[in-house]
Amino acid sequence: MLYKNFINGEWLAGDGEKPNINPSDHADLIGVYAQADRRQAAAAVAAARAAFEPWQAVGIQERHDILDRIGSEILARREELGRLLSREEGKTLPEGIGEVARAGMVFKYFAGEVLRPGGEHLPSVRPGVDVEVSREPVGVVAVIAPWNFPIAIPAWKIAPALACGNCVLFKPAGLVPGSAWALTEIITRSGLPAGVFNLVMGSGAEVGAALIESPQVDALTFTGSNAVGRSLAPQMVARGARVQLEMGGKNPLVVLDDADLDVAVHCAIQGAFYSTGQRCTASSRLIATDGIHDRFVQEMVEKMQTLRVDDALKEGTDIGPVVDQAQLDQDLAYLRLGRDEGARLAYGGELLSRDKEGFYLSPALFTDTDNSMRINREEIFGPIATVIRVKDYEAALAVANDTEFGLTSGIVTTSLKHASDFKKRAQAGLVMINLPTAGVDYHVPFGGRKGSSFGPREQGSYAREFFTIVKTAYTAP
Ligand code: UN1
């Protein structure tokens, strides 16, 4: 079956077609997806622009109900959609179902936010004058999403955009069109006026470029690599459009001498290797103090030996395949680089063969690394973590902060003093105490500092900072 784009309320074939292959089983073709070209992307932009006025006329009760219906259907179909997600992206089935549930809850949450638009009414400093502060939608919003969270990230961009009254152009990642299409199909039956939401699958060079260049697009919310994010921003800023970028991480997890070792190993395994390490919130640098380092490494290696790498849909699989050949090549290149830089591969990093042909790689742990090595500075985006040995807490904090990224930063400790200090001094948007660096809630802000993010936070009520524009109105009687 050919899955089409959705533009101005119609399903349209594209200029080309792209197959969607299961990374756990190369013989499994999930579907063939239409690829829009520039002309179609421009038509979608025009449709979104034209739909903006009629969308404003829809009241907040109806807008709430639309988002609520979308959320309810996603939640009701979580098993089926989770299976599709795991089949196309490669995270395990429990992770896939969990992600779909998260997406459903995001729509439910923003359905509620429709009814809480906020606003202020206050006296002016000039007697008799009245001041109102209100929020209006930004207009037409382009959503460019990555492949590693095929439904949750689109949900946490699309839901607040619609909740705030914007029109949306959704360009999913080329590797995961199945979840994007399924989400779109649900949205098309929710009661939205034609043109308010458009799905434009296609390449960055065609669709991405058309969205970035169009003066009709008022804002871009992007999650993906640093290289792409940074290349998109200047054009948007140059024409005065808004841009929100969520990019890479090189997230530290500090393990102090006084840590509960089981908690430390649990956090490190979950944060570094689950979802095949393909998360911008992954714990990629494990920073252990002298007194616990050796025990931590030993327990990590023992635990890693028990992790099952296999078909994402198979029961009992802990780690699914790498998403595609290009990502696998990148992972293998970093495994070679780590050895060349003098790190010791304590475990893993091997290509595995399973019943079906897929991109199977065993989780890898490097020890004897220092923070200046490229494996500790660049985002790998695979099931590969490093251990950095340090003298004490102060040294650990310094290493944790010594990175160009700043998304999430974690510490495992039983010391309230160190936990409190770390919360204050970690240079990251998210700080995790005795928890994995990955795995976030949907009702609170998400985002990083330094090279990880640009623009206002995503998620929770803070999401409105990006998706609305403030108006201050003065009235004299
Ligand atoms: C999570 O860890 O729960 O692309 C979310 C990413 C992030 C989302 C992580 N933007 O990995």
TrEMBL record:
Record: active site: 246
CDD domains xref list: ALDH_KGSADH-YcbD (cd07097)
Single annotated GO MF: oxidoreductase activity, acting on the aldehyde or oxo group of donors, NAD or NADP as acceptor
InterPro entries (UniProt xref): Ald_DH/histidinol_DH, Ald_DH_C, Ald_DH_CS_CYS, Ald_DH_CS_GLU, Ald_DH_N, Aldehyde_DH_dom
Stored PANTHER family: ALDEHYDE DEHYDROGENASE-RELATED
Similarity field: Belongs to the aldehyde dehydrogenase family.
The protein's name in its UniProt record: Aldehyde dehydrogenase
Organism: Geoalkalibacter ferrihydriticus DSM 17813
